[in-house]
Design a protein that fits this description.
Blueprint: E1 6-10, E2 13-17, E3 25-31, E4 36-40, E5 45-52, E6 54-59, E7 62-67, E8 71-74, E9 80-84, E10 88-95, H1 99-102
Antiparallel strand pairs: 1-2, 2-3, 3-10, 4-9, 5-8, 5-10, 6-7, 6-9
Length: 103
């Protein structure tokens, strides 16, 4: 993991982790059209903001469409995944730090 550098996360998905603070962190995630972020969950609270494009999230069994200018709150320990309906970019904020991504 390298801070402030794009790295492959999933097929068609790259991410850039910015310098974290003491208790929160920020990450940009770019998706090719049709790319998916697999269903997962983590103990961290997450806010996501759509910088560009359009995506459909599955959050706790509910479908939510997010497009440029929209934001979404994902509570801690809630299963979620995403599929890009077109080329898209998100800005994710996590608290506390995602130590699993910082290693």
């Amino acid at each position: 993991m390298s801070l402030n550098q794009w790295e492959q996360a999933d097929p068609g998905v790259v991410r850039k982790i910015h310098q974290p603070g003491k208790d929160m962190m920020m990450m940009e995630v770019a998706f090719d059209a049709g790319a998916e972020g697999a269903m997962h969950h983590h103990p961290h609270e997450q806010l996501t903001y759509c910088l560009e494009g359009k995506l459909v999230f599955q959050v706790d069994g509910e479908e939510k469409v997010v497009q440029k200018g929209d934001s979404l709150h994902i509570p801690s320990n809630v299963a979620h995944g995403v599929k890009a309906l077109e080329s898209s970019k998100l800005l994710d904020i996590f608290t506390p730090l995602r130590e699993d991504l910082l290693k």
